[in-house]
Amino acid sequence: MTQIIRALISKTVFIKEILVSEISQLTPQPLWQFFDKICSIPHPSKHEEALAQYIIEWATTEGLDVRRDPTGNVFIKKPATPGMEDRKGVVLQAHIDMVPQKNEDTEHDFTKDPIQPYIDGEWVTAKGTTLGADNGMGMASCLAVLASKELKHGPLEVLLTIDEEAGMTGAFGLEAGWLEGDILLNTDSEQEGEVYMGCAGGADGAIKLDIEREALPSGYITRQITLKGLKGGHSGCDIHTGRGNANKLLGRFLAGHAQELDLRLVEFRGGSLRNAIPREAFATIAVPAKNEAKLAELFTFYTNLLKDELGKVETDIVSFNETTSAEQVLTKNTQSRFIATLNACPNGVIRMSDDIEGVVETSLNVGVITTDENSITILCLIRSLMDSGRSMVEGMLSSVAELAGAQVTFSGTYPGWKPDANSEIMHVFRDVYEGIYGNKPNIMVIHAGLECGLFKKPYPEMDMISFGPTIKFPHSPDEKVKIDTVALYWEQMVAILENIPKK
Fold first, then answer.
1. 448 phi/psi in degrees, rounded to 5
2. Which residues of 169-194 are buried (b: 16+ CB within 10 A; e: fewer)?
């Protein structure tokens, strides 16, 4: 069977691009058909109700037991196949929502428009937007298991949580008593050949700086300077890759040249999600008309400097200096405080783990900056494998805010998932994987927020692992899933369910 699957896959990798309808013809077909359907129903965070209703209606039609908790999470039960009734109960888990990110030149309303996936060589990606393979692939595999009439398994439940990407609302709202299983298989990992038994916890940090404005000085012209074309990506999984943060990079330019240009800031905005590395940032500024040419010269020089510094990672950095209009600017005191705060704010890897080689222990992402009439807000996401690491970064942000005369608040704190060396399901996965492929999987801890840590509160005795196919550049429009690893992931899922221990 494995050889047949791989032979079918090998025929697809030479195809450059196929229309969306042919995505559903990939192997394993049931999984890809569900993924194709998932892509057709808009489901960004906070707007996943239409997809949830489709799943509920489908499961009801299939004669499955469907429930929903007050938070909005979806629960589906399927009885054990004959002869497997004595196995431990398994919960398959995925989240319904996806990260909505698009290229600047792509017209797409994530609340109304379907994702447009297509095949590009060995990968499936989307036209100008995030693909939603995170966690659409996992969700599709859960539904494919429910739909299968041939797959052998013990008592089975599927848990589909809401709003994972924007705040883990579903996981926070999960209560004891809804799940009966002994083992949970989380499907939200993104590297085939790796199985995860721990993850980072995190918290949102928001620095809010009150601002004052005054009239545009006489003789000044206004410009919007833009830095874009950066790769962005997942603020946990990609934080160690050396990718540029557009907010920090544009802030660096302002810190270096505001005084020289006699520059006055009107507005700063950048990034769109606290859990995505910002790809674009924009500053509306005013300079004396006599410094117009100097601004253009310095911004071009700075862009070339960034290309020299980051060119091996960031290959498509571009900048714009465009005419705009404004009637007011920030006062000099307000401007100085904001620029200094942004420039001093830590970002990126704070510390690598001493216990797990190559894994980030603590990080910070300066994710979103917004300006309104009376304030500027810098929204960050802290991640750490250790609560003390998270507290350390919270202390850093508090100190920066104190020096700037700003307010800082922390919210959405969620725990990490502590590894369990005695995990029975981890041993099952390892043995099954080695039995299929002849080598052991890499047992890992991921520097990203998986819902497993939150599930441990209402279900402290539940045994958990996380695995999935290879997904690159999640949380960015470059997101893609490797076709052959989807078949491998499905092969592992089938084998694990068939080898769950007895009660």
1. -155, 165
2. bbbebbeeebbebbbbbbbbbbbbbb
Alpha carbons 481 and 471: distance in angstroms, whole number: 4
CA atoms within 13 A on the CB side of 376: 27
Q: How many CB atoms lie within 10 A of CB 122?
A: 18
- Could you give the 3-state DSSP secondary structure of residue 228? strand
Answer yes or no: are the C-beta atoms of 359 and 445 closer than 8 Å.
yes
Cβ pair 350, 357 in contact under 8 A: no
pTM: 0.77
Residue 4: how many other CB atoms lie within 10 Å = 9
Q: Does residue 299 sit in helix, strand or coil?
A: helix
Sequence-ordered strand ranges (E) for 302-359: 318-323, 328-330, 348-352
Distances (CA, A) of 492 to 136, 148, 278, 448, 485: 18, 15, 35, 23, 10
The candidate with the shortest Cα–Cα distance to 222, out of 147, 144, 154, 322, is 322
Of the candidates 444, 420, 442, which has an alpha carbon nearest to the alpha carbon of residue 183? 420
Q: Which residues are identified as catalytic?
A: 97, 164
CB 236 within 8 A of CB 199: no
DSSP E strands in 258-301: the ranges are 264-270, 281-288
- What is d(CA 15, CA 289) in angstroms, rounded to the nearest whole number? 54
Mapped onto helix, strand or coil, the DSSP state of residue 303 is helix
Are 137 and 35 in contact by the 8 Å Cβ rule? The answer is yes
CA–CA separation, 238 and 231 (whole Å): 10
* Distance in angstroms (rounded) separating the CA atoms of residues 150 and 84: 13
Q: What is the DSSP letter of 127?
A: S
Mean pLDDT by 10 residues, the chain (503 residues): 38 35 91 98 98 98 98 98 97 98 92 97 97 98 97 98 94 97 97 94 96 97 97 93 97 98 98 94 98 97 97 95 96 98 98 88 97 97 94 98 97 90 94 97 90 94 97 94 98 98 96
